[in-house]
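Renewal narrative, Specific Aim 1. Our central claim is that a sequence can be written position by position from structural information alone. The example that follows is taken directly from our test logs and has not been curated for this report. It begins with the structure tokens describing the chain, in the order in which they were read.
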């Protein structure tokens, strides 16, 4: 009879230990997935937000150079060279936009980036410098104003794109914080399981030794 009771206790203890080990293993799997999610989130923050902020800054600088060349078209300057400079800045912007389009875009980003690209391709594509200035008529004020208006619209799109980076960046950081806090909770859960496991094994060994003494 004592042997049967001892055997049942051992089986019960082994079952408890097995369950605890399975829980620890499951926790490790969940935590591994959590760390992958955290890593993916920070990669997204860098590739799709911080890098994009750099793109927006570079585009803004090129746009500023275009506006400067357009607004100072009455200066004594090599007109053909100015036109080449404007076209060069526009080409640089379009190259950056290509890289921008390869990132993970939100629907709003696609909208603003599409509008911005149309302005650069359709509205600021200056075919001839005579549209801005000629020796006979001087500065074409209406055309310069029109270009300035288009540049202002382009800047608004850039501002909107920049604001999206801040908003999306904050969302990703908040997501990372949630994942980190969850990971800390799982770590505490694992510690609790290990303590229970140690207690169960201690009781198993202690009771076994006590029962062995009793039999002697």
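The sequence written for that structure reads:
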């Amino acid at each position: 009879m004592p042997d049967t009771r001892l055997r049942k206790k051992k089986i019960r203890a082994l079952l408890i230990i097995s369950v605890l080990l399975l829980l620890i293993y499951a926790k490790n799997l969940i935590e591994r997935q959590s760390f992958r999610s955290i890593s993916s989130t920070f990669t997204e923050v860098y590739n799709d937000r911080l890098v994009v902020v750099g793109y927006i800054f570079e585009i803004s600088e090129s746009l500023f150079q275009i506006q400067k060349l357009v607004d100072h078209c009455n200066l004594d300057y090599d007109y053909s060279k100015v036109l080449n400079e404007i076209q060069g800045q526009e080409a640089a912007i379009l190259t950056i936009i290509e890289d921008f389009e390869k990132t993970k875009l939100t629907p709003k980003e696609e909208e603003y980036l599409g509008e911005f690209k149309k302005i650069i391709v359709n509205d600021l594509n200056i075919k001839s410098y005579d549209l801005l200035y000629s020796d006979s008529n001087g500065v074409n004020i209406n055309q310069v104003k029109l270009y300035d208006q288009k540049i202002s619209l382009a800047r608004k799109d850039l501002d909107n794109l920049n604001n999206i980076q801040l908003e999306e960046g904050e969302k990703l950081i908040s997501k990372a914080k949630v994942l980190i806090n969850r990971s800390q909770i799982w770590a505490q859960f694992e510690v609790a399981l290990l303590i229970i496991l140690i207690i169960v094994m201690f009781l198993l060994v202690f009771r076994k030794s006590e029962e062995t003494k009793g039999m002697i």
